[in-house]
Amino acid sequence: MKSRFALIVALVFGAAALRLLPHPPNFEPIGAIALFAGAHLASKRWAFLIPLTALFFSDLLIGFHDQMPVVYGAFALIVCLGFMLQERRSAGPIGAAAVAGSTLFFILTNFGVWAFGSLYPKTLAGLGACYVAAIPFYGYTVAGTLFYTAVLFGGLALAGRKISRLAPSVSS
User: Which CATH number applies to 2-161?
Assistant: First the structure.
């Protein structure tokens, strides 16, 4: 299964590299990468380490920001959603997990902007204003996660059909 593992790692790093290309705001592969790693890597350690490392390397080029702990935490929780897909890799559960992951990312990262930033007052109205201001970005987040989820999960499934050693084993 070394070939399958190598392909999964290549897909994760390749998707992370796409963050460097011009794209609409928040139309990124972050959530899809996390779901994919959680769903396809049998080792929980690798499932967290590989996508977080890919994200870190792309952040080296994009730049760091003060919300990184919240972003990385949200990303790690989306890996956990991917664990629930290990036995249910069909379109319905994968699509639902992609939307759930996008929603989780939206809720956590915008809470982080409110709680740890200085743009909004630390009031319930300030929190509401933060979420309302972020609504336009949510659609891009969902669209990007769904698109890249289809590319990653579909790409690996197609590769497994074409090259038998890349197909999932009974235990993976």
Answer: 1.10.1760
What residue spans define the domains of the chain? 2-161
pLDDT per residue over 136-148, tens digit each?
Answer: 999 999 999 999 9
Taken as a whole, the chain contains a residue count of 172
Q: What is the dihedral of CA 75, 78, 83, 88, to 10 degrees?
A: -140
Q: What is the per-residue pLDDT across 15-27, written as a single tens digit (0 to 9) for each? A: 888 888 888 898 9
CA-angle at 129, arms to 125 and 130, nearest 5°: 120
| Helix 68-83, helix 91-116: angle, nearest 10 | 160
State in Å, rounded, how far the first CA of the chain is from the last one.
Answer: 9
pTM of the model: 0.87
The answer on pLDDT for 172 being more than 60 is no
Q: Please tell me the distance from the alpha carbon of residue 146 to that of residue 150, in angstroms, as a whole number.
A: 6
- For the residues 164-170, what does the mean pLDDT come to? 66
Taking CA atoms, 63 is separated from 8, 25, 66, 102, in Å, by 25, 15, 10, 22
